[in-house]
Amino acid sequence: MSQEASDPLDGEQPPSPDPAQGAVIVGVIPDQPVRVLKEAARYAKLLGAHLLVVYVDVTRFVTYEDPDGYVHATPIDVTLALGEGEFAAVKASAAALLDGHDLDWSARQLVGDPALSIKHLADQIDAKLLVVGTRKRGLGESIREFFTGAVAARLAHRQHRPILVVPLGEPVPDDQDIWPDRV
Question: In the CATH hierarchy, which top-level class contains the domain 19-166?
Answer without folding.
Answer: alpha beta
